[in-house]
Amino acid sequence: MREATKINLIFEVMEPDIYGIPQMVREEKNQVFAEIRSISAAEFYNAGRNGLRPEFRADVFFADYDGQKIVELENGKKYEIYRTYFRDDDMVELYCQERGATNG
Q: Any idea what the Cα angle at residue 13 is, between residues 55 and 38, rounded to 5°?
């Protein structure tokens, strides 16, 4: 494994407002170690065809991932997890794009 980086996996806790519309009330962060990797050319083009703008892939131990949808790097920048892939070696690949980033 390459050098591990600390990241936060973030789960947004939602609760309905007085009109029943879900609103984010707080974030629950789980700090884990990840290996940050570049996106392959195939992933970049396939994701782009679906309106996504991939930035990087974070490989984490599968037990550390519990369906979170946001990754926060050490610099405080947050990214959206748009796809996951569970590997046979107890790792999960988290494919990330800048939050709110879409093509077109």
A: 10
Smallest CA-to-CA distance from 81 within 96, 59, 93 is with 96
With CA atoms as reference, report the closest residue to 82 among 61, 66, 72, 68. 68
Q: How far is CA 8 from the centre of its chain?
A: 9
Query: What are all long-range contacts of 13-20, with beta carbons under 8 Å and residues at least 24 apart?
Result: none
pTM: 0.86
pLDDT by residue (tens digit) across 27-72? 999 999 999 999 999 999 999 999 999 999 999 999 999 999 999 9
